[in-house]
Predict the structure.
Amino acid sequence: MELKLLVDDLIKLLENTNKKDKYFLNRYSKLIDELRKMVDDVERNIYSRDFVVLPMFHYIDRNADDSLIYDKMTLINNWYISNYRKKDEATEIREMIIGYLCSECKMSENRAKNVLKGLAKHKDIYLEFAEYVKSGKFVNEAVTIEGYTAEQLHSNYPLSVVGAYNYLVYLVEEPEKAIADLKAGLPRK
């Protein structure tokens, strides 16, 4: 089952509790915040190394809370454990990209992390860039935004490889402005 569905089910249980005591409501509110942060991080492929589900169990009192709440939390914990390998792969990809940006593009680690955040907003662009970093080659079936691929942008305009992928992000987020800038301000090679 998908994490978001598991979390949504648990949040519904917590929000619709028949407990009116401030003690319960405060614990549930904190747990809901933690669960939403977890889902957000997972959806953006940002698995915090220090994040674990187990501390969330501290918000649940097995003797006082509904057993369904405990059972749902157990399912979430099991999901996280079974998907932990994906975390490691995602972490490896991030570290590989940061290494590339620092060594090949001569960026500071902070700047590299900011570039990574920008690319990660668009998973298809991020994953294609990761593939480029791994292989040193543009992919055959490239992401095309407004008729442009990263390879075309790199070949036809004075853009580095990372600049071309960043420009794809710009084309997604502000297509009219990005196309106008290409036509007006970026001379062809």
Q: What stands out?
A: The two ends are 50 Å apart (CA to CA). Residues 22-43 form the longest helix (22 residues). The chain has a mean pLDDT of 85.
